[in-house]
Amino acid sequence: MTDTEIREALDSEAIEIEPLFDENLQPASYDLRMGDRAIVTKRLDVERLRERLADDEDAVPEINVEAERGFTLPAGSFALVVTKERVRLSQQYAGHLGLRSYFARKGLLLLAGLQVDPGFNGHLVLGLANLSPRSVYVPHEESIATLEIHKMARPASVGYAGMYAGQQTTGAIPRQDSDYLRTIETLSVSDLTQALLRLSDNVGTLTRDVRVWGFPLATGTLLVVLGLLLTRIFAG
Fold first, then answer.
1. Which domain, by its residues, includes 233?
2. Which of 36, 47, 121, 137 could disulfide-link to 88, CB 3.0 to 4.6 Å?
3. Are residues 104 and 206 in the same domain?
4. Pairing label, strands 136-139, 70-73
5. In this predicted model, what pLDDT tens digit does every residue of 81-130 receive, in sequence order?
6. Distances (CA, A) of 173 to 7, 49, 123, 170, 176
7. How far apart are the C-alpha atoms of 225 and 219, rounded to whole Å?
8. CB 27 within 8 A of CB 3
9. Are residues 230 and 124 in the same domain?
10. Contact call for residues 63 and 39 (beta carbons, < 8 A)
């Protein structure tokens, strides 16, 4: 749908976006902003990977993005975030989500929640992965995703009735998803790079040690063997 068609659907209350900002209405989509909640997977450094502790006290907390004015998604991490807007679609409309190109160019990838079914009513939960080698900061209420709206030829016979419907109406991250993410530990790309660099340094040091000490040791061993052989020959 074009911006004009989206506006007409909003005016007729066939769809609803709350809060609504005219500047977020684009030629063929509507920009959704970063909401108040997020959960980011824990970073796991190399030492932590060796220990692999899994105590409940180590579970990551939900981030109050509104209070923190944003959140940081480390390299290699995954996050669930909630949109600021609540979206309601009648059964003749469906939506499709995409990541704003600004964040895509920074290395973020939108992994979840790409289709918004007819009859949906609630805040959208987005799955974000940071594929870049550095952290990405997402400010609170920053436009992060685009919502395309499609008008179907006929209304769907059954509206959205997913298992998370009640929780998303209130803007909460679904309990099942949050419990799962709280216990995930990931080795960040930067930590993995540092581990590989340390491994490379150790291999380089070992190679140099072999070069420095290997020849004298081999020469000394050869002399000892020759000495023993000569001793046996002359003794015989």
1. 190-236
2. 121
3. no
4. antiparallel
5. 999 999 999 999 999 999 999 999 999 999 866 899 999 999 999 999 99
6. 29, 28, 9, 9, 9
7. 10
8. yes
9. no
10. yes
